[in-house]
Structure formats: structure tokens, C-alpha cells
Write a structure and sequence with these properties.
This protein has 428 residues and is α/β, with parallel strands linked by helices. The protein has 3 domains: 256 residues, Metallo-dependent phosphatases (Purple Acid Phosphatase, chain A, domain 2), CATH 3.60.21; 78 residues, no CATH class; 74 residues, no CATH class. It has 10 helices and 17 strands. It has a 6-stranded mixed β-sheet with strand order 4-3-2-1-13-14, covered by helices on one side. A 6-stranded mixed β-sheet has the order 7-8-9-10-12-11, with no helix packed on it. It is globular, with a radius of gyration of 24 Å.
Length: 428
């Protein structure tokens, strides 16, 4: 019988000064250290970091110091850390050493990834602690494989290594990738057909990348440890504490541990009516703000303005409304999402509230349709524009974006359906 316990965490995003606020970078560091403290308290046998320890590949010295402090605490408690690089961790130019590689060189973590054979195919090799390279290692009774972020190329890599993953008493595979359908409107994502062939050898698929929690009998993604955007405010944030007994009928039990010190996020919604003038709407929004309760000080607040109006969105007194929120709640930050659309632009009335993604898609499609040379394929070109936006937000390598543009343009010109964009996470 083999029993052990491990922590599965991902998308820590150290150094993320969200909304240009140093306090937010402190929040992300606090969530990281809360995880470290939990791992030490429960005497975990190891910690898995499934990508995006850092928010930027070029993290500053202070952020690197935060990462090293947590890893050193784990090392002092004899808790090894096994990690893979996420899309935020990896440098844009291969000649540059990543901070994850730096941490591996200093013995603070074991960084896993596939290698390449003489024919350029993905190959799984045992981890060599002297060189700091390898694809798998054995820790505390578990065999752990790891593959860094490869975006749209990952399914092909999984096909190449499928037969190389050996069943063990308990086998873990770490990937920085999301699952298809995990988040509405997310492009890409692995399908069950792509990962089911792995299930014969893999007991625990440890995912990262998408900030929304996913948990099935063998597929697990803890989501991010802190809130990265208002899209995530209703999602749990934390990590998995996993206990394993290889002789049990169900080999593992994964308990979700919420981050205990999350920054509060709140949304105040104000909707415009058909006959509102900009001033009438502003007064109604101020009344809505005044009537809102239950928001603690130093929260991050979004004022969500929406609907179809007789006036333009630029006529809304944004600074006046922000001042009302600041005076009422003393927040850390106020964000205004002005989704008001002038009557005639969208095929809805003010009584209907469209999802932001649908509003964005509809507006872009109409703008594209107004250009005769693109009108016949307006939906496809609009999708490409939104794909590029999402990929840019994700810091996708420019060459990958260029390849996607070229291939989509070719397919549209030949009358084929456009390709899905390389996988994107839900993050800012």
C-alpha cells in the first residue's frame, strides 16, 4: 500500500499589478503564500504547479524574490515542488532563460517538459537533476509527467507521447491547457477524444491555464488562486489538497481549499431605459449606487452600465459616477464597463440585456459588413478580429498570431470555415 498527499495549484500569477495597483500584486503574493503555508501545515509530500507561477515572463526582482521565498519555505520543510511552464511563464524568445528554468537551476523546483528525438518527435525522458531537464520523475510513490504550454500544438504532442506514458501505482500528468466547453466563448481546449486515450495510464490529469475550477473522477483544474478579472468573480479560487491511497477502490480524494484572503470584487449594474436622457440615466445610476449595500471597504467595484439608449455612450458622465462609488464605498479601485449602445446599432431593445461577448461580436460583425469587400464573409472576419484580440490579451507569441491570420485568410478566401484560434485562457 502506498499513501501520500500533494497540493495541486496553478495560475498563481505572481507580480500581477492588476489595474496598475501594487496592492493587487500583494494580493496575488498573499494567495501564493497561503498555499505554501497550507502545504507545510498538512505536511504535503510534494506540490504541483501546473503553470503560470508568474504573470509575466520578464518578472521584476521583487516578484522573483516572492517566488523564491515561498519555494525556499517548502524546501526547508522537505516538500519538493514539481512544475511546468505556462504561457505567462515562458519567454517570447527561446534563447532567453525563463525564471522557471532559473528556479530549477537553483534547486527550488523540478521543471518538466517533453524532449525531442532525432526525428523531431516529442519524447518523454526521465528527469536528470544534474541538467535540470526531463519529462518525468518519481516522488513519494507517484510518477509525475509534465508538458509545458504548447497551445494548439498540444493534441499532436499528446498523440506522440501517448504510448510512452507508463502506468504506475499512481500516475500524474501535468498540462497547462483547458478543456473544451470549460468556459463559454473560450476558443480551443482539449476534447475528451484527445485525452481519453491517456486515461488507461494516467490516474490524475493535473491541468492549469483556465481560471475556472474543473473536477471529474480523473481530470482536475483548481483554477487560479486569485481573481484575475470580473469574469471570474463568481468562481471559486484556490487549490486542491489531494490524498492518495493506491490500494483503495478510489485511489485519490481531491479537496478544494479556497484562498482565505481573497480581495472582494463586486458589481453594481445600472440599465438604461428607452426614454432616458443621459442626465436622467446618470441620476438613476447614482440612486442605484446609493441603494447598494454589503460592499466592504477596499473592494474592487465594477459599475456596469448597459442597455440601448437614445443617446451615445460618450454622453454618460463616467467620472461623476465613479466619484459617487468612491464616496459611498472607499474602494481600492473602481472600474466602469460602459456597454450602452445607441438605438439602431444592435437588433435589441433596452429591455434586453445582451452578454458582453455577444455585443462585441455583433458590433464587430456590423462594422465588417459595412465594408463591401468583406461583407460576404463578415462573420468569419469578425471572428478573426476577436481571435486576435483574445490571443493578444493572452500574450500569444506574435508568430503564432501571424500564422493564424494567414491560415484563416487563406481558408476564408477558398470558402472554407475558419480555424479555431489557438487555445486561450480566461485572464486579463
Amino acid at each position: 500500500m502506498t499513501t501520500f498527499r500533494f497540493i495541486h495549484v496553478s495560475d498563481i500569477h505572481l507580480g500581477y499589478e492588476q489595474y496598475n495597483l501594487a496592492e493587487r500584486a500583494d494580493d496575488f503574493a498573499r494567495a501564493y503564500l497561503d498555499m505554501v503555508e497550507h502545504a507545510i501545515t498538512v505536511r504535503a509530500d510534494f506540490v504541483l504547479i501546473a503553470g503560470d507561477l508568474f504573470h509575466k515572463a520578464n518578472a521584476d526582482a521583487w516578484t522573483l524574490r516572492q517566488a523564491m521565498h515561498g519555494l525556499q519555505l517548502l524546501r526547508e520543510s522537505s516538500i519538493p515542488v514539481v512544475a511546468i511552464e505556462g504561457n505567462h511563464d515562458a519567454p517570447h524568445y527561446h534563447k532567453h532563460l525563463s525564471w522557471m528554468e532559473f528556479l530549477g537551476d537553483h534547486g527550488l523546483l523540478s521543471l518538466l517538459n517533453v524532449d525531442r528525438d532525432a526525428h523531431g518527435r516529442a519524447e518523454l525522458r526521465p528527469f536528470d537533476p544534474n541538467s535540470g531537464h526531463g519529462s518525468w520523475l518519481d516522488v513519494a510513490g507517484a510518477r509525475i509527467y509534465g508538458i509545458k504550454y504548447y497551445g494548439a500544438a498540444l493534441p499532436r504532442i499528446l498523440e506522440e507521447v501517448e504510448d510512452q506514458i507508463e502506468a504506475a501505482p499512481f500516475t500524474i500528468l501535468m498540462l497547462h491547457a483547458g478543456m473544451e466547453g470549460q468556459v463559454p466563448h473560450m476558443h480551443g481546449g482539449l476534447t475528451m477524444g484527445q485525452i481519453n486515450p491517456l486515461h488507461g495510464a494516467v490516474d490524475y490529469l493535473a491541468l492549469g491555464h483556465v481560471h475556472k475550477q474543473l473536477k471529474t473522477d480523473w481530470i482536475h483544474n483548481p483554477g487560479s488562486t486569485e481573481v484575475n478579472s470580473f469574469e471570474e468573480i463568481d468562481w471559486p479560487h484556490g487549490f486542491f489538497d489531494v490524498t492518495v491511497d493506491t490500494d483503495a477502490e478510489v485511489k485519490h480524494q481531491a479537496e478544494f481549499i479556497p484562498s482565505p484572503h481573497l480581495r472582494p470584487f463586486h458589481r453594481i449594474i445600472a440599465a438604461v431605459s428607452d426614454d432616458d436622457t443621459s442626465e436622467v440615466f446618470a441620476v438613476k445610476a447614482e440612486e442605484r449606487i446609493a441603494a447598494t449595500t454589503g460592499i466592504p471597504e477596499r473592494a474592487i467595484i465594477e459599475l456596469d452600465l448597459g442597455g440601448v439608449a437614445s443617446f451615445g455612450r460618450q454622453e454618460v458622465p463616467i467620472e461623476r459616477l465613479k466619484a459617487a462609488v468612491e464616496e459611498r464605498f472607499n474602494p481600492l479601485a473602481v472600474r466602469v464597463r460602459n456597454s450602452i449602445v445607441k438605438d439602431g446599432i444592435l437588433p435589441v431593445s433596452s429591455r434586453e440585456r445582451m452578454d458582453r461577448v455577444d455585443v462585441e461580436r455583433t458590433v464587430v460583425e456590423r462594422l465588417v459588413y459595412s465594408r463591401p469587400e468583406y461583407a460576404d464573409s463578415a462573420a468569419a472576419w469578425a471572428k478573426l478580429i476577436l481571435d486576435i484580440k483574445g490571443m493578444a490579451v493572452e500574450n500569444t507569441v506574435p508568430a503564432t498570431i501571424a500564422d493564424h491570420i494567414a491560415e484563416t485568410a487563406r481558408r476564408v478566401s477558398e470558402g472554407d470555415a475558419p480555424l479555431p484560434a489557438p487555445e486561450a485562457s480566461v485572464t486579463e
